[in-house]
Specification:
The protein is 38% helix and 14% strand. It is of the alpha/beta class. Helix 2 packs across helix 3.
């Protein structure tokens, strides 16, 4: 049975406050690796309506596409970034933007940048990969199955209670159609009907068989939970969120199953290294170059030119990219209203390059930033008293003491290099 461990509230407070900088400490550059905003559910989160007794609610956008509400929430985050990094935003050349090649990540980047640099026509380079470009699928299967002792049914037992809750939400409706129990249907090796097939890709298309080892009950429960989270974050009336059967407490319970399951699978070391290695190296290389080229001339360093490149690198990706990166660097984070390592819409891993004028040292501070679900739902202004959740991150192998857990630039480069090195 899963359990939550609780720290005294006073110990958690620093994790959700903006960092204080010393008078001699400047932020000189930043890399923001951000999940896209609220989107309409994809097929994995509806399963072609096989298991739900009532119709899924209508959405204003096509499956997988950003919603107008999602765009508005992203702009709230953009306002926060513009305020936090005002000293870095000198002109339109201050930002560089890259994205995976999907409409929702490209659209998310454009939404955020429309507020961060509102007078600029920012080019979004859609050159990031959402999944590993080449990976040994047999080795990945062995690594993942081996991590769970080759017993994928373990998840069904571990999440028995939230899976029962999910069954109640999906199927227990008086006078509605009868539907199969998703907890047992996917584990039946004799099931070969279209109910046990999946669309190839996110939208309608050719159907291919599902792998029961991957598509176990916990996998389905995790995906249905994400659907309900999207409904809540979209601002749907509560009588539409899980057909009125998913209040906020139940949503939190179901989403803990979602996060724990995907966190376990995606942080499998082989998977994380293959999927996040290139991105981690990009972040390290970019910050290293920024430390040399993107700062004013420093005392005793007349050889270092001022300016010459972007100060902000924004990478627009998916929740899996954040989890892979977390697994690769062996880092964890908190969001003030969700479970450990949650990746809600618009959330981001942020890597700030700091320069101390007194010591002439460059450091990297890593933190996780996210709007709370209610901030997304209510489109809360984040530039006044209410701020997003900010959680400083300890990076094993390079972080110093809190509250910022700063890594020296050299140590951050070394840790990244070691993490991405293929045996």
């Amino acid at each position: 049975m899963l359990f939550r461990f609780v720290l005294p509230a006073v110990l958690l407070l620093p994790a959700f406050c903006s960092f204080a900088q010393t008078p001699t400490d400047d932020v000189r550059a930043v890399v923001i690796v951000a999940r896209h905003g609220v989107r309409a559910p994809i097929e994995n989160e509806t399963r072609s309506s096989v298991f739900n007794a009532q119709r899924w609610p209508a959405w204003p956008s096509a499956p997988g596409d950003l919603t107008p509400h999602g765009i508005a929430a992203l702009k709230r985050m953009g306002e926060f970034y513009r305020q936090r990094y005002a000293t870095l935003l000198h002109d339109c050349n201050s930002v560089a933007v890259e994205s995976t090649n999907t409409s929702r990540t490209i659209g998310s980047a454009k939404a955020v940048m429309s507020v961060v640099v509102p007078d600029c026509d920012v080019r979004v380079m859609a050159d990031l990969t959402a999944d590993p470009p080449s990976i040994d699928k047999a080795k990945l299967a062995d690594a993942t199955h081996g991590r769970m002792a080759d017993q994928p049914e373990w998840f069904t037992h571990a999440f028995a209670r939230p899976l029962e809750e999910m069954h109640d939400v999906l199927a227990k409706c008086a006078g509605c159609k009868q539907v199969p129990d998703f907890r047992t249907s996917m584990l039946d090796p004799s099931a070969h009907s279209e109910n046990m097939m999946q669309a190839q890709g996110e939208k309608a298309g050719a159907l291919v068989p599902r792998d029961p080892r991957k598509e176990n009950a916990a996998a389905l429960g995790a995906d249905f939970s994400e659907n309900f989270l999207l409904q809540y974050a979209e601002g749907m009336p509560m009588d539409q969120v899980g057909w009125g059967r998913v209040d906020r407490a139940r949503l939190d319970d179901l989403m803990e199953m979602n996060t724990r399951y995907h966190d376990f699978i995606l942080r499998t070391p082989y998977y994380a290294q293959q999927a996040a290695g290139a991105m981690a190296q990009k972040i390290s290389d970019w910050l290293s170059m920024a430390a040399i080229l993107n700062i004013p001339v420093r005392p005793g360093r007349p050889d270092v030119p001022a300016g010459g490149r972007e100060s902000v690198l924004y990478l627009s990706v998916h929740d899996a990219n954040l989890t892979w990166l977390g697994g690769l660097l062996r880092i964890a984070w908190l969001v003030s209203d969700e479970t450990l390592n949650a990746t809600p819409p618009g959330s981001a891993l942020v890597f700030e390059l700091h320069h101390n004028r007194q010591s002439n040292a460059d450091t990297v501070q890593v933190f996780f930033i996210a709007q709370t679900l209610d901030q997304i739902r209510n489109l809360t202004d984040l530039t006044r008293a209410e701020k997003p959740s900010i959680s400083p991150i300890y990076v094993p192998g390079c972080s110093g003491p809190g509250p910022g857990y700063a890594c020296s630039m050299e140590a951050f480069v070394r840790v990244t290099k070691e993490a991405t090195k293929v045996p």
